[in-house]
Amino acid sequence: MNSLIYILAGKKNKTVVGIADNERIFLSDQLSEHLPDKKNENVKLIYFEKIHNRAKALRRKRYLSYLSEKGRLRIVRKYNPELLNLIFDLNQSNKIY
From the first residue on, what is the mean pLDDT of each consecutive set of 10 residues in the chain (97 residues)? Predict the structure, then answer.
């Protein structure tokens, strides 16, 4: 089963790292917690990885979580320099690590 590692960004590019067991769960559950409201107006998916092995996914999430905001954004900007919302690219991506 594929695991999805993701980074969400809110106002002022404050980031949150998370993991979901598949895209469907991510889209219905985790993202709904971070949908725009009065507190979080511009939450967007700025980075994701699909990883086949659950143990590797957990290690990757832990690594990304330990990084500073600056470190996370450095990784994100390699693949998404403009910090665009990638939510619509999620289903089209076939990158599995």
Answer: 86 85 59 52 84 92 95 94 84 56
Q: What angle do CA 8, 16, 81 make, to 5 degrees?
A: 45
Cα distance between residue 71 and residue 67, in whole Å: 5
**Residues 15, 7 contacting (CB under 8 angstroms):** yes
Going by C-alpha positions, the residue among 11, 73, 27, 12 that lies closest to residue 46 is 73
Q: Tokens 């089963």 — which residue? A: 1
Contacts (Cβ under 8 Å, ≥6 apart) of 47: 6, 7, 75, 76, 79, 80, 86
Q: What is the pTM of this model?
A: 0.79
- Residue 80 DSSP one-character state: -
Count CB neighbours of 49 within 10 A.
21
